[in-house]
Amino acid sequence: MNIVAFVILLIPVVLQLLIINYLFKLEKNGCTCAMDYKRTYILSYLVINMIVVILSMFFDVLSIKSNFIGLLLLNLYSIAGIINIIFVIKYVNMLKDKKCGCSESVYRDILYGFSIIDALLLGMAVLMFIYFIFFYKISLNVKGNKKGKIGKKLRIYKR
């Protein structure tokens, strides 16, 4: 692995360590308004995700294998990531709604900001997937037509 890729992978690890530290400090300082099942899930997910990122620096952890278990684990990891994004946004909004003063920190804002960015990127990925599937179906329909005939579902006029 080259140094640039290592540094790029190191940035999320450092951010995750800072956020994990922030979540632990909430409990250590006795911030009862911040104790929620979402906090526990976010903390657990971040620890597991940090381990996966560190392992992926040295090994090809997330390569899709042709076996069922590899695909199942990758799908579960993806679903857990989507749930984490939703929980972080709800958790930070809950803290703001409760006006939980002991949770106010720049780390809370970083956590919220990155979750919004993740949600936007995920939404764009889903839209791109739908876009490509739609145009793939259209291209199959066009290729399936014989010369000189007009398709029933998609009308193509020749000039």
3D structure, described in words:
- It contains four helices and no strands.
- By secondary structure, the protein is an all-alpha fold.
- It has one domain (3-144).
- 10% of the residues are buried.
Summarize the SSE layout with pairings.
Blueprint: H1 3-28, H2 37-58, H3 68-97, H4 106-144
Helix pairs in contact: 1-2, 2-3, 3-4
User: Per DSSP, what share of the residues sits in E-state strands of 2 or more residues?
Assistant: under 5%
Secondary structure tally: strands:
0
Helix content: over 70%
Number of helices, where a helix is a run of at least 4 consecutive DSSP H or I residues:
4
The H-and-E topology, N to C, reads as HHHH
Which stretches of 5+ consecutive residues score pLDDT under 50? Answer: none
Tell me the domain tally.
1
User: Averaging pLDDT over every residue, what do you get?
Assistant: 81
Radius of gyration: 22 Å
N→C terminal distance = 54 Å
Q: Main β-sheet, in a few words? A: none
Given the helix and strand composition, which structural class is it?
mainly alpha
Task: Indicate the overall shape.
Answer: globular
Offer a quick outline of the entry.
The protein has 159 residues and is mainly alpha-helical.
Task: Name the features.
159 residues, mainly alpha, 74% helix, 0% strand
